Amino acid sequence: APAGAVSLRRCSTRVTPEGVNRPVIDRIIRVDHAGEYGANRIYAGQMAVLGRSSAGPIIQQMWNQEKDHLKKFNELMVAYRVRPTVLLPFWNVAGFVLGAGSALLGKKGAMACTVAVEESISDHYNSQIRTLMEEDPEKYKELLQIIKQFRDDEREHHDIGLEHDAEAAPAYSVLKTAIQLGCKAAIFLSERI
Q1: Which of 15, 125, 158, 175 could form a disulfide with 118 if both were Cys (CB 3.0 to 4.6 A apart)?
Q2: Would the keyword Mitochondrion be found if you checked this record's keyword annotation (predicted)?
Q3: pLDDT computed for residue 19 by the predictor
């Protein structure tokens, strides 16, 4: 380029580890972003129904943590140049409907939803932790720390749900099983599409 000309080529300012397993990292970040997005929509639906009830502050506290999780995965999507799942518009609606629908069953229904979802997500995070540990724990140190912290937060939400009578929800075992099957399908699809 001539002297004084401005280059139009964009430069990357991201710092990512060399030699990362791109398919594994892309899949992990894409699905975790989708999961945290969906969790935010579930809590938004629950707050729309129960926000002014005695359960409102509890749900808000969990939602605030999920907002932090989503913010972090938004940053990781950019840093690692991972495209989001094309299913985000669907998860937007499905998450809100699941949250509002479970909340329409009352506080116990909302908490049953929380237990089912958070158990599925913490199990999924454990699977990812095992994968990254097998790959190279030092290379994926930062990502492992993030996933471990978020897994612990999800476990805390699970326990909060149990403490607030999730198991007393109408048809608890059926509701939990149905929600967890939906979570497994969402994980499977979001990793790939």
Answers
A1: 158
A2: no
A3: 80
